[in-house]
Amino acid sequence: MTTVSGLSVTEPIPAVWAKGLVKQFGALRAVDGIDFSIRPGLCFGFLGPNGAGKTTTLKMLLGLVDFDEGELCLLGESLPGAARAIRARVGLVPQADNLDPDFTVRENLFMYARFFGLSRTDVAERVDALLVFSELTTKADAKVETLSGGMKRRLIIARSLINDPEIVVLDEPTTGLDPQVRHMIWARLAELRARGVTLILTTHYMEEAERLCDELVVMDHGRILDQGSPKALIQKHVESDVIELRGEVSDGLFTMLRSMSAHTERQGTAVYVYTHAPAPILEFLGEDTGLTIIHRRAGLEDVFLRLTGRGLRE
Amino acid sequence: MKRSIWALPRLRLAAFALLERNFLVWRKLIGPAIVLNFGEPLIYLLGLGLGLGQLVGTVGGLPYLTFLASGVVASSAMTTVSFEGMYSVFTRMVPQKTYDAIMASPLDIDDIVLGETIWAAIKGLISAIAIMVVAAFLGAVSGGWMALWALPIVFLMGLTFAGPAIVMSAVAGSYDFFNYYFVLVVTPMFMLSGVFFPLDHFPPALLLAVQFLPLIHAVDLIRPLIVGQPLTHVGLHLAVLSGYALLGYYLAVVFVRRRLWV
User: Fold this and answer.
1) Where does A16-235 sit in CATH, by number?
2) pLDDT digit string (tens) for A124-147?
3) Domain residue extents for chain B
4) Most B CBs within 10 Å: which of A69, A92, A115, as the mutation test of the B interface?
5) Class of domain A240-298 (CATH, top level)
6) A residues 109-128 near B, CB within 8 Å?
């Protein structure tokens, strides 16, 4: 179980503070008693396989999902009582495209501002700035349905900023996008973080989490398995190096590798050897020619698989 | 701690943001909207009023065209509101996910449903105005300027019919589901509320039963105002329409919460 990390009286009010959150869907405990605290101005990630409870947790932050037990505060106000006040200060980037297809890019931004009670003149400058921010200025008067998937996602991110939020919640912000768009979005998110906006995101992409997140939690089956910075989690849960072997690895060789390393596992025709001392193993393997051998630093993906297992989630 | 879908909705001005959205979309599609609003009643009134009117002569002392036009103002408002509350609301609620986007703003379902209810009533009002204009050109508005008093009644009946239609959207799996409501509710009401023929010849039991239909009360207010006859039972008619409107709005909020809340 986790503890609220590094929280002491001298620190500012957390952007988000959760204790003992539970969400029950019938017999399923989608969120099963989680505690976390998010410091303002950081990028905080929720990692976990499908069905881990990430999206449910994010929706709770905006009061879009009820919780059955626990306490949840955002920006010093508690849910669900202050949900409307909290939503006025938070932006949401949902997983699904829910842009208004009857409006142009610019009209989508103006109209969304109206739902926050902001007047058109109030946000005129902000709309222009957001069009620049999301590189959609040339598409400002295009209908939403003519946009590509990447453009729509950029517009949804721009839309989430229309109320100048202190916290932006992003549910898998780059899923299904090509690398160019993904990198552009990462750069924009880093820009927001540099401006002091608290970012909270879920993702399946370990590279995304490693790049963006100051701190993250790994969730599975509605529980938090561990939390910390990407670096700390890697150090804590896996060895520094991974040697991946592809091809037919005999049982004899597998046993040998297991005795030489800290942790070895087989997945189909691949074998993963985790170790702090790769040199002797590589030297030993040098004689065996039939295999493809890849040596790399251990990453968040290894932590993720170690904590949540390699079984498929449907 | 838990929200209850049965909680009483709060009425807030924030709902006007949704009205603004719907108006802006409507304005983009104004061409086809006007053809529908003016074209359809014109054909109806010319075909039925003049054609059938030749055979019928007068009804309750009124030329048939006049009798029909005043009823069609009410029934057309009902149909327009029902269409808006079902097809349009369903589109925004389900495939388009417009409400999901709005719910991430400070607005609640209370506000969304209030905005949709008022918007549906406004669309009913627009269709009623179009019919009254057409009817006036055909000489079928004998109440003079007093006929304009029918418009607030049309707006009220719009609120009355919006709620049940939104409830249908909230329980519908697909657009086909709305056939049930049209065939079982809207069309019978159309036929049994004195739009096309007076109800004098109904057996007393049936006459009593149809008094539970809101459209009858709308027709009983709107027709005298348009043709210039004295109003009767005004309080009763207004009470029935308002009662259905409040209950409909409340149930619409409850059912939309049931659908969209997790």
Assistant:
1) 3.40.50.300
2) 999 999 999 999 999 999 999 999
3) 14-20+30-260
4) A115
5) alpha beta
6) 111-112, 114-117
